Amino acid sequence: MSSERKEHVLGDLSDFPVGTHRVVKVGRREIGVFNIGGKLYGLPNVCPHQTGPLCEGKPPLGTLVARSENAWKFEWVNEGEIVACPWHGSNTTFRPEDASPTRTSPSAPMRCSWTGI
Predict the structure, then answer these.
(1) Which of 7, 28, 37, 25 is nearest to 112 (CA)?
(2) CATH number, residue 30
(3) Distance CA 109, CA 76 (A)
(4) 22, 63, 85, 94: which one has the fewest Cβ atoms less than 10 Å from its Cβ?
């Protein structure tokens, strides 16, 4: 298996407005392309829970947390960084700052770059 990187044209930048996502076919694989805050990220369209179509669910969500440093008050965090599988609701935290061109896991997010996609 070659580790050589290849460039794939996915569409025009205008096809991926801020706050949206779309599943595209790249070779034999499906990749969910997410525009989070004006930056594009890709995530394999496979849920690690039961191999469902992870990126075909609802738009990325956030979550409620309660922490001791906030006197256990609920706060909404990770807006746009959580993808829920449409099959069983299994959540994958999609943190853009963790995205890397060199991934250690097949379900880890990857950076997308473009010159015009």
Answers:
(1) 7
(2) 2.102.10
(3) 22
(4) 63
Q: Which amino acid is at 54?
A: L
- Structural domain contains residue 50: yes
**37 domain residue, yes or no:** yes
Both tokens of residue 93? 């935290």
Is 73 within 8 Å of 51 (Cβ atoms)?
no
| Predicted TM-score (pTM) of this structure | 0.69
Q: Number of folded domains in the chain?
A: 1
Write the pLDDT tens digit of every residue in 15-49. 889 888 899 998 888 988 888 888 888 888 988 87
Beta strands in 14-71 (DSSP E): 21-26, 29-36, 39-44, 61-66
Which residue range is the domain that position 33 belongs to? 13-111
